[in-house]
Amino acid sequence: MRTEEEQVEALKRWWQENGKTLLLTLAVALALVFGWRTWQDRQAADAANASALYQNLVQSVTLALGAEGTDAQVATAEHLATSLKTEHEDSAYAALGSLLMARVAVEQGQLDEALAELEWVLSHEPGDAQRIVATLRKAQVLGEQGQAADALKLLDALDPGSFEASYQELRGDLLLGEGKAAEARDAYRLAAEAAEATGVRPLLTMKLENLTAEEG
């Protein structure tokens, strides 16, 4: 049986052989833990900042598009949207901000600017919902620019998912603009069927009834 002195000597030898490796391993483990926590804290702070910027942008856009909207309010919205894109480029809030600014541009008749905002969203690998919404709005803007054929090609390549009603209604609008009343009516009917689960769309109903009456 080992004496106490022998055990101490054995422990010293083990420490001399393995102590540095053990300390290094512990240091690396601690660095990883603290690094991970720091990264999580930074991500949470970035998300909170992006959310606050977006909420301010929503308020600014609401004011800018109101009856008493001013150029200064539009400029404020543009500044906030730019901050979102430069400081939080990969966040969903930046994409939402660009979608809002595309709406502002359309309201002001600046269709090229609207397309630029929508292209920004699409070029930053958005989630499925944002990608579909951005594509639908891009097709709508193209239609307003007199490029209905290009807009329809864009829609043909899109799987609208849960946005089927909006997708088919927009197809109907574009087809009608191309003078294809029968195809437009079919698209409106598909839109109405898809919209049954989400409630009546008065404008869609009116479009369908008008074409049906003309057919009769």
Automatic annotation (TrEMBL):
The way it spans or sits in the membrane comes to: Single-pass type II membrane protein
- Segments spanning the bilayer are 21-39
Keyword DNA-binding applies: no
- Check the record and name the Pfam families matching this protein: TPR_21
| Primary residence | membrane
Protein's cellular compartments: Cell membrane
Superkingdom of origin: Bacteria
The record places domain Ancillary SecYEG translocon subunit/Cell division coordinator CpoB TPR at 12-212
Q: Which residues lie in coiled coils?
A: none
| Keywords for this protein | Cell membrane, Chaperone, Membrane, Transmembrane, Transmembrane helix
The text of the family note is: Belongs to the YfgM family.
Q: Could you tell me what this protein is called?
A: Ancillary SecYEG translocon subunit
